Each structure stands twice: as C-alpha cells, then as structure tokens.
Amino acid sequence: MRMxxxxxxxxxxxxxxxxxxxxxxxxxxxxxRPPQDxxxxxxxxxxxxxxxPDALINLAYYFDWFxxxxxxxxxxxxxxxxxxxxxxxxQHHSITLLQPSSYRVFDGSRATAYSEKDEPVPLxxxxxxxxxxxxxxxxxxxxxxxxxxxWLLDDSVDGTLGRFLARAEKPDELLMADDRRGNxxxxxxxxxxxxxVLKQLDxxxxxxxxxxxxxxxxxxxxxLGQAIxxxxxxxxxxxxxxxxxxxxxxxxxxxDEPQHAxxxxxxxxxxxxxxxxAWRAGLPALLDRxxxxxxx
Length: 296
Known about the structure:
The protein has 296 residues and is an alpha/beta fold. The protein has a domain at 5-154 and 184-219 and 263-282: NAD(P)-binding Rossmann-like Domain (Rossmann fold). A five-stranded parallel β-sheet has the order 1-2-3-4-9, with helices on both faces. A two-stranded parallel ribbon has the order 5-8. Strands 6-10 form a two-stranded parallel ribbon. The termini are far apart. It has helices spanning 13-24, 41-51, 62-66, 73-92, 125-140, 160-168, 187-202, 221-232, 266-272, 279-292, and strands at 5-8, 55-58, 96-102, 144-149, 151-153, 175-177, 181-182, 184-186, 209-213, 244-246, 260-261. It is built from ten helices and eleven strands.
C-alpha cells in the first residue's frame, strides 16, 4: 500500500476488524487516539494539519450510527459539524475521504432493493443526519467514497447483537419483526470491503462516488434472530428457544427504522469486483469472538 492511511475510530468494532484484516495483508493505519470528548472540528483541523495522510477512513462515529439504540439530536448535530470540517480539510489537503453511511437514508417504502440511483428519503433523526452528511461530503470533497452498509452486526456488548443476546438470556418473549427486510452484514465483511476499496484507490483509480454493500441474502429480523440463537447455543446457554413474530408497525422503532432496507450491490461489484458474502457464513466467527471476549 503506497498510500498513507489514517483511521479515525480504530477502537470501535469495525475499526478493530479493519486493523486486524489490514495486518494480515501488511496494510497499516495511523490510528490516533481521540480526544477525551471525541473528535471535533478543532481537533480534526490540528490532526490533519500535522499528519497529512493520503486517505482517511472516518469511523469516528461508527457506534452511534450503526449500533446505538438511540442518538440525541444534539450529538448528531455536533457530528455533522465535525464532518463538514473534515470534508473541507480533506479537500484542502487532497486527502481521499472514505465515509460510511447506511440503509437508513431510505424510508423503506418500496419492496424492491434500493440502488445508488434511488432518492434518499430518511425517516428518523439518524437517517436524516446521515443524508445531510452525505450531501456535505459530496459537495465539499469530490475525492470521496461513500459506503452505505446494511444491518451491521458486531461483537460489542452494547451493540445490536449484544443487546439481542442479553435479552435471549432472560425467559421473556423476544419479539422480532417478521415483515421487515434487510441485509445482515457481519463487521468483518464490512472491513473486507473497505480494504478492497482502499487497494484499488491505491492504484490511483479515481472511483469516487456512492456505493452500497450488504451481506448476501435479504432476510427478516425474525429469521436473523433465529439464525443467531441457533448458532449462539454452540457457545452459551440461552433461555429463549425462538423469537416471536411481531408486525413492523407494532415495533417501538417503526417510525425510525425502514421496513424495507434491502440494498442492491451491483455497482460495487461492477466497479470494484467486490462480491457480497453470505452473512450466515460470518455468524460463527462473530459469535465466537463475542463470547470469547466474555461479553455477556
């Protein structure tokens, strides 16, 4: 890798996967420790003025965007402002910006898969913030890659998977939507995709733009929950035998979560040659790491 790579958010689950996978391929990252209160416009300005990397992977707010149950409007506004500044700095220093985004930029009103050409109409605060961030990055830093991911699953104790497994240890009904659809995407698979994109950008291929990536095989939260429980029992006893079906409209997050969140991944395949991997194949390693870390 000729490019000097900087990773913001090296301590979170996706950052750790990226560092681990990069090490296997002899790809290293500058991964600065964030300030105590997190990255803001001032600290980012100082950082990039001092370091001048060739490419920057911004996972600084990964947990809030992809794993947290809720995020406050104030917190999202501060993150938006910081990324506006980050995009300006990347443009000024000719740094390539790789910025993650999410299926949440769509409202989930269509039953067919969303492509990059479909117009985003986000539902909740998080989706709306991500859509504004995408627009800001496009307008300010032409040398960018925006990667929209599906339902990201990681091994953090307080993430989506961790909360689900904690509930499965109690003998209470575990309600999951059976009429909501999306693509589960293990965090290691997302890291593989980021590495693949970086390798081609390292060859000076100007493949800027927006791309979708999500694990192969769309499914429902109910079916995903059953698959996780089946696999998790190989590592840990659980109180719940199977999740119970509930309608999307009855779910507490129905106003924020798109009912149909399937992403079409043809563009990233045709541009970068990246093929979607089956999410089911990634569950054993993900759960092994979750339980090995003693995170329940």
